[in-house]
Amino acid sequence: MNRARLDETLADLDADGYLLDASQEDANQLYLSGFTGPDPFLTLYVDGEVHLLVSGLEYGRARTESTADAVERHADYGYEYGGREERYDMYADFVRDKGVESVSMPPRGPVGTADALRERGVDVAVDGDDRLGEVRAVKTDEEVEAIREAQRANEAAMRAAEELLASADVAGEEASADGDADAEPGVLLAEGEPLTSERVAEEIEVTLLRHGCALDETIVAGGARAADPHDRGSGPLRANEAIIVDIFPRSKATKYNADMTRTFCVGEPPAALRERYDLTERALSAALDAVEPGATGEDVHAAACEVYEAAGHPTFRTDPETETGFIHSTGHGIGLDVHESPRLASGGGELEPGHVITVEPGLYDPDVGGVRIEDLVVVTEDGYENLTEYPIAFEV
Amino acid sequence: MNRARLDETLADLDADGYLLDASQEDANQLYLSGFTGPDPFLTLYVDGEVHLLVSGLEYGRARTESTADAVERHADYGYEYGGREERYDMYADFVRDKGVESVSMPPRGPVGTADALRERGVDVAVDGDDRLGEVRAVKTDEEVEAIREAQRANEAAMRAAEELLASADVAGEEASADGDADAEPGVLLAEGEPLTSERVAEEIEVTLLRHGCALDETIVAGGARAADPHDRGSGPLRANEAIIVDIFPRSKATKYNADMTRTFCVGEPPAALRERYDLTERALSAALDAVEPGATGEDVHAAACEVYEAAGHPTFRTDPETETGFIHSTGHGIGLDVHESPRLASGGGELEPGHVITVEPGLYDPDVGGVRIEDLVVVTEDGYENLTEYPIAFEV
């Protein structure tokens, strides 16, 4: 955590303190409290100090594991398990006990808590600028190292996926004469069985676990399914089609995320698909070339869009309702959240050294398939450093 | 989803509609929208219909995969990526377009959205009773089956963990003469290396993945670390100490969770630990005996507390500040969230058929160790059905 930057940013608030009511699933909470509480707890930042209020169950661990300056527990305010109103009374007492009469909460803070504090005379303002998110966006060297480490695990998982695809037989081809007699020609086979998205995803996930990472979801999508950027994919994969593999693991130790996408084709791709792959590689280069301090997220997005638009493909800039073409933003910040500030999209703000971002142009059409290539980079004083160490190659 | 119950419950609202602004990580959102959107989107329940508002990126998938009655996208309201205020304008337009002038939001809904709608003339009330959570608490047969299926995966993982412990050598004992010469006597050894919490957790997680489940965390905590109920455990495990294994996996297909805890001891436990284990088994029986429709969560909690209190152990009922004894609630509802309604704790409300709950008494003391035994049950018309098919045995 960049404490100096935090102090400087929160000093500007029109409130006495900054309040979070969330569990460890909230990245702001994890960042400010340094505590992995599975149930919601309060964190109050006031006068440069971080105060926690946790249940008795979490008290011992919060004192030893959190990065907070002070930890209190419900019993300190006479609260026992149960009543909702009593719980809110305790929250108001906790805040007032620190001399705080007004707090700022992030936009996604809970409205129940905000309104309950208001009813108890504490002013609650929404931090519409999401200042804590902006502080989090600029990573310290230690945070960049944590992301780099998760990215190494990501690369091991991508390698496992690519090897599984590369070693597959193809139904209907000579080498697979022993395979599943029922498989349609063109379907990939592993050990005689159709190779499915689910099977490749499992290989990725097991590899990540072996490397200390966890994840909720992985995208392994082939053919028409790969034409929907958020489709996770399912069912048998096939030769001569684009297979998008998008992996975003989280380090179990540090809680920082990595993110990378590669698109593979087993055997030769049709000409139209090859063309789209090459174009996407050019869009990636163009977008990366635009990454430097002072450039905006919008500039980087524009660089990718221009490559596609010049080739006649629609983007959200040329047609907000299009369902084919380049139909997402060029990238996003990443850290304790997979998606955080800054955005590489229309309206995306200025890049700063320490921003860790994905750059991930893609092109989609159900009739041809989907292609996406994504690298993970950190903005530096004079450009960027690419944290991705994985080759970009279509045919496997 | 129990649509009839939902309609009946939300019909009582003092508002025109019920509004969610959340991603799939929010269980209410997953339940009401039936859509796995990775970024926050709006779901509005009004006049018995569920309306979604998603980004262009999610539009295709939301139309085919969600259970909503209608899906709209940002472009339908002329919104393009970017401005925060324009985004809130779109939200207000979307709500008003359905004839809605007032909405209810759950307590953990985002205050930024609530305040922005209020500024635009839409009344926003907090659903302090968390009615949607109460609807979710009562499971349909299909939901119970999904939980049962996740529990089968859980049992496979528990078996893998138990087998790893059972097959371990013990440093300093004859059989492990070939083991790690540096390991302290009493440390468990697997293939000559100290067997750690991390290694057992990895085995659990890999087994779960092979069974279609994912999870963020697992507890494998031995010795003094097991005396903190939420400690995940780390480092070498030892013979003759209690090792708590608490697994709460989520089915990747259905998103429903299971939950189970067993406590194991490799070799003979000290008498004090054995006594605590037997007492906890009795507390579990007493609590389970109390589970039936009409009983309250407080009743079930009391049944467990009484066993411990009668044996002279502190509980939160006898000492809210105690850090040893029975220092958590007896259980919780489980479904799309690992922790949801009802609570088996002081103040916990009435149990109903269809409630799926954990029953998990435990006893903790850093000087002796921690013990917890947890089963997963569904409340039935005349009592409960235990969904757990795993033996309760201490020594392995």
UniProtKB/TrEMBL annotation, chains A, B:
Residue span(s) of domain Peptidase M24: 145-381
Position of the signal peptide: none
Source organism of this protein record: Halorubrum rutilum
InterPro entries with a match to the protein in the record: Creatin/AminoP/Spt16_N (IPR029149), Creatinase/aminopeptidase-like (IPR036005), Creatinase_N (IPR000587), Pept_M24 (IPR000994), Peptidase_M24B (IPR050659), Peptidase_M24B_aminopep-P_CS (IPR001131)
Superkingdom of origin: Archaea
Domain Creatinase N-terminal: 4-137
Name used for this protein in its record: M24 family metallopeptidase
Annotated family: Belongs to the peptidase M24B family.
Pfam families: Creatinase_N, Peptidase_M24
Keywords: Hydrolase, Metal-binding
Upper lineage: Archaea, Methanobacteriati, Methanobacteriota, Stenosarchaea group, Halobacteria
GO molecular function, one term: hydrolase activity
